[in-house]
C-alpha cells in the first residue's frame, strides 16, 4: 500500500516548505519527516476483503529555529485540512478523509537547543485486498 508515499508527496507539494519532507524518523538537526504511528486500526471489513482503516501518521520537525518549525507545521496542517483527495498510484486504497488529530505543538527540547515540533494526522481509507 502506498498511502505513506502519497502523504509524503502531498506534503512535499506545498509551496514555501523550508526543506523536503522525508519518510522516516527525525534523526538530525533541521529534519522534517512523516512517519506512521501505532494505533492504526481496521474499522470495518467487508465481504470482498476491502477494509475501512484509520491510519495514524505524524509529521515531525527537529530544528533549533522554533519559529520556522511552528510556521512549517501550521502550513502543513492547513494544507492537510483542505485535502479532498489522495490518489493511490498502485490502486491499493481509496481516500475517504483526513483529520488533524493533534494540531502543531512543541514536544521536547534537548540540551543542544533542538526543538521537536509534531503534528498528528488520521487518514481514513478503504484498503483493497491484494
UniProtKB/TrEMBL annotation:
<dbReference type="Pfam" id="PF12691">
    <property type="entry name" value="Phage_tail_terminator_6"/>
</dbReference>
<dbReference type="InterPro" id="IPR024411">
    <property type="entry name" value="Tail_terminator_phage"/>
</dbReference>
<protein>
    <submittedName>
        <fullName>Capsid protein</fullName>
    </submittedName>
</protein>
Amino acid at each position: 500500500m502506498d498511502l505513506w508515499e502519497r502523504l509524503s508527496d502531498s506534503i512535499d507539494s506545498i509551496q514555501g516548505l523550508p526543506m523536503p519532507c522525508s519518510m522516516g524518523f527525525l534523526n538530525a538537526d533541521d529534519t522534517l519527516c512523516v512517519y506512521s504511528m501505532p494505533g492504526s486500526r481496521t474499522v470495518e471489513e467487508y465481504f470482498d476483503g476491502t477494509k475501512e482503516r484509520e491510519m495514524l501518521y505524524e509529521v515531525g520537525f527537529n530544528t533549533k529555529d522554533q519559529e520556522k518549525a511552528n510556521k512549517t507545521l501550521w502550513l502543513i496542517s492547513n494544507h492537510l485540512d483542505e485535502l479532498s483527495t489522495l490518489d493511490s498510484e498502485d490502486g491499493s486504497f481509496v481516500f475517504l478523509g483526513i483529520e488533524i488529530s493533534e494540531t502543531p505543538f512543541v514536544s521536547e527540547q534537548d540540551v543542544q537547543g533542538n526543538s521537536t515540533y509534531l503534528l498528528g494526522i488520521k487518514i481514513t481509507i478503504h484498503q483493497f485486498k491484494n
